[in-house]
Amino acid sequence: MANEYGRLPKADPDTLPDELRERLGIWFDKAYKDDNLFLTLANRPGVLDMFLNWVSFVYTDASSLDPRTVELCRIRMATRNQCVH
Question: For the chain, how many structural domains are there in total?
Answer without folding.
Answer: 1
